[in-house]
Design goal:
By secondary structure, the protein is α/β, with parallel strands linked by helices. It has helices spanning about 25-35, 55, 60-65, 110-120, 130-140, 165-175, 210-215, 265-275, 280-285, 320-325, 325-340, 345, 425-440, 465-475, 525-550; strands at about 10-20, 40-45, 75, 90, 140, 155, 190-195, 200, 205, 220-225, 230-235, 240-245, 250-260, 280, 295, 305-315, 350-355, 365-370, 390-395, 405, 415-420, 450-455, 475, 505-510.
Length: about 575
């Protein structure tokens, strides 16, 4: 994390009603919705710069932003015991729009069962029926509105306009294995194979900064601060009253009359709570941090999707590797994008997807595939000098749990992340079975003429032990860390079903850290939904408080809402 020079001057003060920490996927949604009626003063703090880089907005720029030194926090886990002691690179967005500005653009909500399970865990109001209206409200689907999709929301979801020979062959091959073609992974039942819809609009990325923040930035009651690194939550007893931040070289205190809202993501929201003295007492004391509010679950319950990438050499020059290999190829796809806003530059890396079940017994899909018309040694790496593609497979609902803890009391130090990948037999078995399914798919009649050879793991890997060894040696994140400030009513929960931090008032967490269990798929659309729903919860409480002030006799005390 980046150091800033210290300042000895007295902190500057900014007053507002709501301060949102993190101008990422959730933060941009909150900034728009909370400032929409003009009644509330909102301050949005983003540690990174504005989203002005062209690599953000060009979908294929994903290959650049994945390793960008300014737009990406570039975290790494601690050495992972089950991954041959490797530290796994974890990119996280560090700009307006957060990870929605640097991710793979894929629109996936998860399964209806994911959200029904949240409700079964005691989170009233979070079932599929409850959350679907918020997915719909957020969505501007180019197919138009329907019972399951929105047609006039701010966040554009677009079809890939042109079919690709490789993806068509994959769809045909999956049919040979009993997986049906689907045109919609997002109706609740995601099983099938087909093309992903992407968060793009007319060939450009549609991040939450573009969709939500840009239309709201001219509002006089919204203040957006970039290069603004939050260093702690200010507490007055059991109430959060503001945030301390370094904005450029200035020390600033942002006083929030109503609420402090943490939307810094699954790594930095728990980190900020811990830095503020909110978390497990023993862990706080070990760093010399006074315990302001003991809360055992902060930083626990970390979950992530582990991807295993199988790579194949093709018999035809139809891949993005081929497009990017020569100056002529680059010029051709560049001209295609300029003239038609289509082609490889407009769709990023992964075009096709597949959800199926590989473990024994009944149930919903337990693995997800991303099919890339490109191959490289790592996500965002240099494409191979041959016609190549990637079959990436991940287990959807891992049992393994990790932690996010502090490295020190320094707010500019990176947190300590332990994913604990492949810690259970189920996770190891599902990972291997997913790889075996990939190999069966590559061997189908539809794909056999197109695939020359398996480059990784390679023909020398012939048994389950070899496949697991390959997973340990090369597996990596597919960028979905979640769960570290989990929602619930049990002793390990950090926030309640209204996303208020247990035992404190004026403090919420609104990002993927509140997921009690990881959703079955990509996390960007679910985080937008969480922020949409949270904005309604927050504004409803504001209206109730305003009504209470109107009806309370003069001189009578107003009750402070108590959270368990």
């Amino acid at each position: 994390m980046r150091k800033h020079p210290s300042s000895a001057a007295a902190p500057e003060r900014i007053a507002c009603d709501y301060v949102v920490v993190g101008g990422g996927t959730a933060g941009c949604v909150l900034a728009n919705r909370l400032s929409a009626d003009g009644r509330h003063r909102v301050v949005l703090l983003e540690a990174g710069p504005r989203d002005s880089s062209p690599w953000i907005h060009l979908p294929i720029g994903y290959g650049k932003t994945m390793v960008h030194k300014t737009l990406n926090w570039g975290f790494s886990t601690e050495p992972e015991p089950a991954m041959n002691g490797r530290a796994i690179y974890w990119p996280r967005g560090r700009t307006l729009g957060g990870s929605s500005s640097i991710n793979g653009l894929i629109f996936v909500r998860g399964q209806s069962d994911d959200y029904d399970h949240w409700a079964e865990l005691g989170n009233h109001g979070w079932s599929w029926r409850d959350v679907l209206p918020y997915f719909i409200r957020s969505e501007h689907n180019t197919r138009g509105a329907s019972a399951a999709h929105g047609g006039d929301g701010p966040l554009w979801c677009s079809d890939i306009r042109h079919k690709h020979e490789l993806i068509e062959r994959i769809i045909e091959g999956a049919g040979e294995l009993g997986v049906r073609r689907t045109d919609d992974f997002n109706g609740g039942d995601q099983e099938g194979v087909g093309y992903y819809q992407l968060f793009t609009r007319n060939g450009l990325r549609c991040s939450t900064a573009v969709a939500y923040l840009r239309p709201a930035e001219t509002r006089l009651n919204l203040r957006v601060e970039t290069d603004a690194h939050a260093t702690g939550v200010i507490l007055d007893g059991s109430r959060a009253t503001g945030v301390r931040a370094r904005i450029g070289t200035r020390e600033v205190e942002i006083a929030a009359a109503r609420e402090v809202i943490l939307a810094a993501g699954a790594l930095q929201s728990p980190q900020l709570l811990l830095l503020s003295g909110i978390g497990p007492a023993e862990a706080l004391r070990s760093h010399g941090i006074p315990v302001r509010h003991e809360l055992a679950g902060v930083g626990e319950n970390l979950q992530d999707h582990l991807q295993i990438r199988l790579m194949y050499r093709l018999s035809k020059p139809i891949t993005t590797n081929d497009d990017l290999r020569t100056l002529f190829g680059k010029a051709r796809i560049g001209l295609r994008w300029l003239l038609t806003r289509s082609g490889p530059l407009a769709v990023g890396i992964n075009q096709g997807g597949l959800f199926t079940r590989v473990m024994p017994g009944p149930g919903t899909p337990d693995v997800q595939f991303h099919f890339a018309t490109l191959s490289a040694d790592m996500a965002g790496g240099q494409p191979h000098p041959w016609s190549g593609c990637t079959f990436s497979v991940c287990q959807l609902r891992p049992e393994s749990r990790g932690t996010v803890t502090l490295r020190s009391a320094d707010p500019f130090a990176a947190p300590v992340m332990r994913a604990n990948y492949l810690a259970t037999e189920t996770d190891r078995r599902c990972t291997v079975e997913g790889m075996k399914f990939a190999r069966r798919l590559a061997a189908t009649q539809a794909l056999r003429p197109l695939i020359l050879s398996e480059e990784k793991p390679g023909p020398g890997v012939t048994d389950d032990a070899g496949l697991l060894a390959f997973a340990r040696a090369s597996g990596a994140t597919i960028f979905h860390p979640s769960g570290t400030c989990k929602m619930g009513t049990d002793p390990a929960a950090v926030v309640d079903p209204a996303l208020r931090v247990h035992g404190l008032s004026g403090l919420r967490v609104v990002d993927c850290s509140i997921m009690p269990t990881l959703v079955s798929g990509n996390t960007s659309a679910p985080v937008v939904m969480i922020a949409e729903k949270a904005s309604d919860l927050i504004l409803a409480e504001a209206r109730e408080a305003a009504q209470a002030r109107k009806t309370t006799p003069r001189g009578a005390p107003l009750a402070e809402p108590a959270h368990s």
